[in-house]
């Protein structure tokens, strides 16, 4: 890849990719070991790959405080959510091993800071609620009471759940550069792609060079459609309905926090590291239940000066097929009423699929519907 091509892509957040993968140092087995939760393991892997550039490790108190108060790191760079590692008590040494849930060591951390944190305050600031029924709040409340911080070196990457979709920021950047793309739009999803999402990704793609479909495959609520099923549905859809040389599909390894507006900023910054100059923000991005206003995740971008984030949000309305427009549209582009629009609730769609019935083709491509119907019939795949 030539330097000129590389420079045509947006620069990573903070200027360069900071990946923390490295060699296994001697003596790891003698270190005190901290077992990470699945959310912390996702963060660790994103630190390894550079997806969380410029963070070199789990956050210390000065970054944490400023993120909570100002949505910035201590050095002023925009950053919307804590990336922290919870522990019961301070480690004895200045170096610890970080292990997966089975106790297998994956990384070492140089301990620079250990601090107590106020869970109520973090909930209020980041999730905008202290309600324990909120999945992100519940997970945070269940954590240990201190954070341990410092740079990490990851010597063993976790096995990606979808090896064929695994691409680190350096990989997606190389793919975009090879294709000569300069402006790339990222699309985050944790759902199957129905016609509405196809429409908005294609609207966005009309104005840029390439599309990165970047489904989130980290831990989600148990009632979201499993990532394996979604991956299959994306594959079929891209094969049949997108030009191959304009789309890259890759897994986004983050765990959902369900922090709504702040998570939208966090998602956008990570996508910048993957090479995206633009990022699609729909209604209630990263929301759950009715904790956030429909447009809060779009409006929060106004709290930064243009150019501060680097990545440009593209705001979308919900879209639908309109019988009178005879095409996909949104309230911004269709003057007709509800009676002319093909819209189905999530509940209705699940009911149809569970009964083995395809939703109308104006709502969902038949190929996608069939994959979901098959998955619902298979008890092992466990779609509610
Ligand atoms: Zn219309």
Question: How would you describe this protein?
Answer:
The protein has 384 residues and is an alpha/beta fold. The protein contains twelve helices and 15 strands. The strands form three sheets. Strands 1, 2, 3, 4, 5, 6 and 7 form a seven-stranded mixed sheet that branches. It is globular and about 70 Å long. Zinc ion binds next to loops.
Summarize this structure briefly.
The protein has 384 residues and is an alpha/beta fold.
List keywords for this structure.
7-stranded mixed β-sheet, alpha/beta, binds zinc ion, 384 residues
Class derived from helix and strand content: alpha/beta
Strand residue percentage: 15-25%
**What distance lies between the first and last C-alpha atoms, to the nearest angstrom?**
46 Å
> How many β-strand stretches?
15
Radius of gyration: 21 Å
Taking pLDDT < 50 over at least 5 consecutive residues as the criterion, the unreliable ranges are none
What characterizes the major β-sheet? 7 strands, mixed
The geometry reads as: globular
**Order of H and E elements:** HEHEHEEEEHHEHEHEHEHEHEEEEHH
| Helical amount | 25-40%
């Amino acid at each position: 890849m030539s330097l000129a091509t590389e420079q045509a892509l947006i620069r990573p957040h903070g200027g360069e990719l900071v990946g923390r993968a490295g060699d296994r140092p001697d003596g790891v087995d003698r270190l005190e070991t901290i077992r990470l939760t699945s959310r912390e393991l996702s963060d660790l892997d994103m630190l390894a790959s550079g997806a969380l550039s410029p963070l070199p490790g789990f956050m210390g108190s000065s970054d944490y405080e400023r993120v909570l108060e100002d949505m910035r790191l201590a050095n002023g760079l925009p950053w919307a959510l804590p990336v922290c590692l919870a522990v019961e008590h301070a480690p004895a040494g200045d170096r610890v091993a970080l292990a997966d849930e089975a106790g297998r060591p994956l990384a070492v951390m140089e301990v620079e800071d250990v601090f107590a944190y106020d869970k109520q305050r973090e909930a209020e600031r980041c999730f905008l609620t202290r309600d324990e029924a909120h999945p992100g709040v519940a997970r945070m409340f269940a954590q240990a009471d201190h954070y341990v911080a410092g740079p990490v070196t990851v010597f063993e990457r976790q096995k990606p759940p979808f090896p064929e979709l695994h691409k680190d920021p350096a990989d997606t950047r190389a793919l975009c550069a090879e294709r000569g793309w300069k402006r790339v739009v990222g699309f985050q999803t944790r759902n199957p792609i129905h016609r509405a999402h196809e429409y908005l990704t294609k609207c966005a793609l009309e104005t840029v060079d390439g599309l990165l479909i970047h489904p989130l495959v980290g831990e989600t609520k148990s009632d979201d459609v499993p990532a394996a099923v979604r991956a299959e549905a994306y594959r079929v859809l891209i094969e049949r309905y997108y030009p191959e040389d304009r789309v890259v599909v890759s897994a986004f390894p983050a765990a959902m926090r369900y922090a709504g507006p702040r998570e939208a900023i966090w998602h956008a910054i990570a996508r910048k590291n993957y090479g995206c100059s633009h990022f699609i923000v729909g209604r209630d991005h990263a929301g759950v239940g009715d904790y956030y206003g429909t447009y809060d995740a779009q409006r929060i971008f106004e709290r930064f000066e243009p150019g501060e984030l680097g990545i440009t949000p593209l705001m979308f309305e919900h879209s639908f097929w309109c019988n009178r427009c005879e095409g996909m549209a949104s309230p911004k582009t269709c003057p007709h009423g509800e009676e002319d629009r093909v819209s189905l609730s999530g509940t209705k769609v699940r009911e149809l699929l569970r009964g083995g019935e395809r939703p109308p083709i104006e709502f969902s491509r038949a190929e996608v519907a069939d994959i979901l119907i098959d998955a619902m019939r298979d008890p092992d795949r466990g779609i509610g």
